[in-house]
C-alpha cells in the first residue's frame, strides 16, 4: 500500500488538476492503515471482530470507489493508469484481511535489507557464491533475532555454543525450539475467509 500511495502522490504532483483526487485517495489509504492498526491492537475477541468488520467495510468502500471511477469515461488517463494498477494488484493488496500477520506494506523489510546492501557495496560483494549464501543466511538469522527482541551477537553465540556442545551436529527439534521465535498468538474465534467483491 505504500507503493500504491506513492503512485497517487506522484500523479497529484504531476497533474495539478488531479491534486484533489489524489489527496482523497491518500486520505483513504491513511484511513485503511488506521483501521488495520485498530484491528491489530484490539485486546479482546469482541473488539477484534468489530475492528475486523470495520476494516473489511472500508476495504469494500475502496473497491467500490476505484471500480466506479474506472467506469467513468471522463476519468483522466493518468488517474486511470493508477487505478488500473490498483485493480491489477487488488488480490495481493487485500491479502492482509484474511491473514492479519501480513503487513500493509514491506517498508520494514526494505529497512532491514538496507544494512546488508550498504555493506555489500562497501566490501565489493562476496568472493564466492557459497560465501554469498552464507552471508544471506547469517543476515536472515540476525534480523529474525533482532525482530524478536534478541541481541544478534548473543543469539548467534548461544546457538553456536549449543551446536559445538552437540558435537557439531544439528540440534534436535526440542533443543532448536529455544532458538526459534515464539509462535504468533491465535486469532480470536476463527471464521472462514470472506473475499471482497471488486465493486
Could you explain the architecture of this structure?
This protein has helices at residues 2-14, 19-41, 45-70, 77-93, 107-122, 129-147, 152-165, 173-176. With 199 residues, it is mostly helical. The longest helix is centred in the first third of the chain and has 26 residues, at 45-70. The model is unreliable at 189-199 (pLDDT under 50).
Q: Can you count the helices?
A: 8
- The global form is extended
Radius of gyration: 22 Å
Count of distinct strands: 0
Please give a handful of descriptors for the protein shown.
mainly alpha; 199 residues; disordered C terminus; 66% helix
Short description:
This protein is mainly alpha-helical.
Can you lay out the helices and strands and say which pair or pack?
Elements: H1 2-14, H2 19-41, H3 45-70, H4 77-93, H5 107-122, H6 129-147, H7 152-165, H8 173-176
Helix pairs in contact: 1-2, 1-4, 2-3, 3-4, 6-7
Amino acid at each position: 500500500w505504500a507503493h500504491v500511495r506513492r503512485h497517487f502522490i506522484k500523479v497529484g504532483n504531476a497533474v495539478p488538476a488531479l491534486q484533489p483526487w489524489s489527496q482523497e485517495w491518500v486520505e483513504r489509504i491513511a484511513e485503511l492503515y488506521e483501521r488495520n492498526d485498530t484491528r491489530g491492537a484490539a485486546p479482546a475477541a469482541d473488539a477484534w471482530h468489530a475492528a475486523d468488520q470495520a476494516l473489511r467495510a472500508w476495504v469494500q468502500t475502496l473497491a467500490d470507489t476505484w471500480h466506479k471511477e474506472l467506469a467513468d469515461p471522463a476519468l483522466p488517463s493518468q488517474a486511470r493508469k493508477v487505478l488500473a494498477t490498483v485493480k491489477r494488484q487488488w488480490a495481493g493488496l487485500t491479502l492482509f484481511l484474511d491473514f492479519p500477520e501480513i503487513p500493509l506494506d514491506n517498508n520494514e523489510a526494505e529497512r532491514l535489507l538496507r544494512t546488508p546492501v550498504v555493506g555489500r557495496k562497501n566490501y565489493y560483494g562476496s568472493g564466492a557464491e557459497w560465501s554469498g549464501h552464507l552471508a544471506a543466511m547469517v543476515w536472515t538469522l540476525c534480523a529474525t533475532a533482532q525482530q524478536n527482541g534478541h541481541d544478534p551477537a548473543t543469539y548467534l553465540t548461544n546457538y553456536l555454543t549449543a551446536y559445538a556442545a552437540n558435537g557439531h551436529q544439528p540440534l534436535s527439534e526440542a533443543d532448536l525450539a529455544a532458538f526459534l521465535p515464539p509462535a504468533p498468538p491465535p486469532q480470536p474465534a476463527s471464521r472462514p475467509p470472506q473475499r471482497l467483491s471488486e465493486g
